[in-house]
What does this fold into?
Amino acid sequence: MNSRVDCLSNTILKFLHEPSSNAKCFHNPNNRKAMYYCDLLKMCLFSVSSKCFLLPVGERKISSPSAEKSHKISVVDVKTGAEMTSYEAYQKNCVDKATYLELSKQEFDWKESTCFESDGNSFLLLTDLKTGIQFNIEETLNQGRIGRELVNKYKEGLITANEFGDILVSSSQPNKDLNSPVAGFWLSETNERIPVLKASRKNLVDRVTALRCLEAQVSTGGIIDPFTGKRYSVSEALQRELIDDGCAKQIQQCELIFTGIIHPVRNTVMSAVEAMHLNAVDKEMGMRCLEYQYLTGGLIDPKSHSRLTMEDAIKNGIIDAFTATKMKDEKSYVKVLTCPKTKKKLTYKEALEGAVFDCHTGLRLLDAAQPMKTGISRLNLQSSKHMCISNFSHTGISLILMSYSHHKVTHCNFFSHLGNVLFFF
It folds into this structure.
């Protein structure tokens, strides 16, 4: 009898710890989307009064992740209606440190690594393995966002990597970069920032859309790493695997629109329009690059790299009046991009308008959606009467449906008793 119980327990544990190999048996009550239980928990709020997880139901979804919020709102005081991040709740003594760290682990997984610059100097990098957000510790220190005492505490082990990461996130509030092109993509399911090339390889976005986004980046200053917000030349981006050889060949000319092209006779920097007239740059690609610049804040002078109004661009010979008039006509914009979420055709202007500003870099990100996948269960748990019990955590988690429109809290078919969570299939 005991051996049978042990065998059953091991099977259940395997099922719980390897959800990707099993069917999604739970449903999001807001949209009926199939989910794993662990993903359902990530949507929950933690009630400081009852020490339970609450699942928001209704129109107000304050726990929904967003690229524009530095943290997911994950802690709530039902009595007062106060909403906090797990770090804020810890600072206000609403939760103890053990509870805070457990809540923080659900959102972030910070790891330290040592990196080397081209000159051989090393620096510490703190990376969240879940979202891809990165902080150069020395750089953040030099910017005055944190103090040396805090860094010393972290290095001495007085605060954990997750606590240090939460502090870095809370201290990082960049302004929205209104001149930003689409810097990358954002997955709401995982709260993950994804570079353009990686998004293409994961089939989150089609190859043409990816190339157009890279063209816009390089023609406005360089290929962007959405984790840090830094820009790189085509050659540097290739080394950092932000692009591949195929991308590099197709966007090489776009870089010349930004850096400038030397006239073969005068030995001076030519404007993009002049370069197109001399066939030094492909005309169709050159026009796209000028359009990217215009839509992200103004044409860029290749000599000074400063943004110019259309009138100043005409005066400085960057563009002629006929081309400028054509570029101002929004009806001439071609729908060359495909929205990674709705799959509708978009102009680049529409993509910019539909993007969100990342709270960590201030740059624009396009919301994307994971390709549909079908899970196959390894366990034969087809009956709706099956259930298993697992001790989830020391806090005694209870999954509760919370209706914000009426401020009522009601239990659903998931419930807990003495720290155990019952899973129904």
